[in-house]
Amino acid sequence: MKEVVKNSEALYDFLKKMIVETLKLEDISPDDIDIDTPLFREGLGLDSLDALELVVAIEKHFNVIIEDENVGKKAFESIRALANFIKEEYPQGV
Questions:
Q1: Which of 90, 12, 82 is nearest to 40 (CA)?
Q2: With contact defined as beta carbons under 8 Å apart, do 78 and 43 qualify?
Q3: Which structural domain range is residue 79 located in?
Q4: Tell me, what's the pLDDT at 64?
Q5: What is the pTM of this model?
Q6: Is 94 a member of any domain?
Q7: How many domains does the chain have?
């Protein structure tokens, strides 16, 4: 996983696939998601239950902790923001 975190494009692709698979999004493919599209509201239209599922999946997979709501809101703004959060927090470093 360290190699994926080092490579931004690979991390973006991994996160897009993770979102589609974790949330079982049937009407969207990973390729349909732009890395700067908002994940919530007018973007992908995800809701608070989706956020909870994603937080659990991200924390488990990358062994990071999303400590509070403000950190989570910033990290989950977009794929790019989430990738940046993971790069900063990934315990094995990049």
A1: 82
A2: yes
A3: 2-89
A4: 87
A5: 0.87
A6: no
A7: 1
